[in-house]
Amino acid sequence: MPEYPHVVLKESGYLAVIEPDRWVPGGFMLVVDGTPQSHVSVDNPGQLYFEYVARIGHVIDQLGMPGEPITAVHLGAGALTLPRYIHRTRPGSRQQVIELERELVDLVRAEIPLPRDAGIRIRYGDARAVLGRLPAGLVGSADLVVVDIFSGARTPAHVTSLEFYREAATLLKPDGVMAVNVADGPGLRFARAQVATVAAALEDVAVLAETQVLKGRRFGNVVIIGSRATLPLDWMPRLLAGGPHPSKVVAGRELNDWIAGAPITTDATAVPSPPPSKSIFQVRPGSADN
Predict the structure, then answer these.
(1) Does residue 283 belong to any structural domain of this protein?
(2) pLDDT, tens digit, 9 for 90 and up, residues 64-112
(3) Which pLDDT band holds residue 203 (cuts at 50, 70, 90)?
(4) Residue 281 covered by a domain
(5) Residue 72, Cα to own-chain centre: how many angstroms?
């Protein structure tokens, strides 16, 4: 067994470990089934280290007025990195987290405690099942819905379908934004289908990722952002400038060309995301993809 705090997760049977970050003082990494899933800087939760998480952070920064509270729903807890970020950068925000693995959250809260005034509520259960049991007051009230659901290194099939995204979208305000983390490898067959599927659920969609990942040259993360309203075009230069670099935002006609021919995923056709090679994660958090 590992020397660091750990627990075997009841639902998946995976081993979850909290490891100190050798390069970032006060930093910790959550590793599940050998896959780095989250990074937290205790001293500065406003600093995001994983590439795709930083991109979602840039999107959060563009919501409404800088620093004003928002309502956010997080599907998938990890080490509660983004809820901590929102609490630090937008104090007073209302946040709801849905997580399947209770033991995971217990480990994280014991080893990397949340601020006492964080205002983060956690509900346990399968994300798709819990969506239908959320308080009526949350429907149509979320400025942000984050979909970052992984079992080990893979996203389960039942949270990749059009039916799922349509249900999650009911939580959004008319101008609310959904951010979806997708991991895929060369060819990006799964990621392109996910973008096409989110685009079938929401009127306007854009993609943020490292350029080499978007070209399908290596395994990595693609962040999909979507809204019922038109995404503000003035966001795009700021999302790019925020890094990590090199990066690209794909939207409009270019996005339509990028997903041309990609199938829309339904409950009947859904499959889990592809597994990465374990060697991918033998890197420091600042350059990790997952």
Answers:
(1) no
(2) 999 999 999 999 999 999 999 999 999 999 999 999 999 999 999 999 9
(3) very high
(4) no
(5) 12
Q: Are 154 and 272 in contact (CB under 8 A)?
A: yes
Q: Where are the beta strands (DSSP E) in 158-263?
A: 172-184, 204-210, 220-227, 247-251
**Element holding 270 (H helix, E strand):** none
CA distances from 123 to 58, 101, 113, 212 (A): 26, 10, 17, 37
Alpha-carbon distance of 31 to 38, in angstroms, equals 7
Q: How far is CA 250 from CA 145, 209, 260, 290, in A?
A: 20, 9, 13, 21
What is the CATH number for 242? 3.40.50.150
For the chain, how are helix, strand and coil distributed in percent, rounded to 5? 30, 25, 45
The CA-atom distances, in angstroms, between 245 and each of 55, 112, 210, 234 are 11, 29, 7, 19
Task: Compute the CA torsion angle 48, 49, 55, 56 (nearest 10 deg).
Answer: -50
> DSSP 3-state assignment of 192?
helix
How many structural domains compose the chain? 1
The CA distance from 134 to 124, in Å, is 11
Q: How far apart are CA 100 and CA 152, in angstroms?
A: 12
Q: Are 39 and 113 in contact (CB under 8 A)?
A: no
- Do the Cβ atoms of 142 and 176 come closer than 8 Å? yes
Examine the pLDDT at 216 and tell me if it is beyond 80: yes
Structure tokens at 274: 């592809």
| Domain that includes residue 177, residue range | 6-266
User: What's at 238, amino acid-wise?
Assistant: R
Supply the pTM of this predicted model: 0.93
User: What is the rounded end-to-end Cα distance, in angstroms, of the chain?
Assistant: 23
Is the Cβ–Cβ distance between 37 and 130 less than 8 Å? no
**What is the C-alpha to C-alpha distance for residues 86 and 68, in angstroms, rounded to an integer?**
10
